Amino acid sequence: MNNAPIGIFDSGIGGITIFKSIQKLLPKENIIYFSDNLNSPYGNKNKKEIQILSLKNSEWLLNKGCKIIVVACNTATTNCISMLRKSFKTPFIGVEPAIKPAATNTRTGNIGVLATKGTLNSNLFEITSNDYCSKINIIEKNGDGLVDMIENGILNGTEIEKLLLKFLSPMIKSNIDHLVLGCTHYPLINDSIEKILPNNVKILESGEAVAKQTKKIIIDKNLVGNNKNPTYNFYCNGGDNSLKKILTNNFKINTI
Ligand code: DGL
Hints:
By secondary structure, the protein is α/β, with parallel strands linked by helices. It has helices spanning 16-25, 47-63, 74-87, 99-105, 117-120, 123-132, 146-151, 158-173, 190-196, 207-220, 241-246, and strands at residues 6-10, 31-35, 68-71, 92-93, 110-115, 137-142, 178-182, 202-204, 232-236, 252-255. The strands form 2 sheets. It has a 6-stranded parallel beta sheet, sandwiched between helices. It has a 4-stranded parallel beta sheet with strand order 6-5-7-8, sandwiched between helices. Helix 1 crosses helix 10, helix 2 crosses helix 3 (74-87) and helix 8 (158-173) crosses helix 9. The chain is globular and about 50 Å long. Residues 10-11, 14, 40-43, 73-75, 116, 119, 147, 183-185 line the site of D-glutamic acid (DGL). The site of D-glutamic acid (DGL) has 16 residues, from helix 3.
């Protein structure tokens, strides 16, 4: 047994979608969540900047005694997961756009991917798309501006729907039947996305897959915890407004 916490980081509240899946699948694990919202969004930063921030976040979580780190950010994963794995002995789990299930199950041969510029421009994204999508058409859109709105608590209403319409219209015109949410912030605006998409389009996100992979790794590495009353601690460095909006009152939020 190993009752040290699982560490999770993101550029803000997006990783909470991953936190919830992990908490559900691994209810006896302590968890520390770090929101680097001071430096949000990561999506328009260059690779070097994303690497520096991800290294810093990982070191911070490791100093808190985390036994495993979950990079709950597609932008950080696609730009630096291999660098992080090389830099530390601790196991790292990442999150990537769910292209494989979309490419495998599409009937129209057209899938949409909504992600940040940093994710869409990364080598890892290019490799995955080439691996699975040689015979299908991917319509990629950089959801520029969405993360800022979500961090500011705008999850529905005309402002965000107008922006979403701009990104989703070309995908709908191209007859997509799967939309991959390639940013952990986007499941938080699922209701607004559903309002715009036709009913036949399936929305895919990666939270459950990341939780399953985290469980597999902690079992393989003998790191399973058995906390009867697990603790969940949330930290942020750019103010706690965004975390407060999406977490219930019984969670402890610390500003640093
Ligand atoms: N939630 C992140 C992702 O999955 C980061 C978004 C951002 O900071 O731009 O890509």
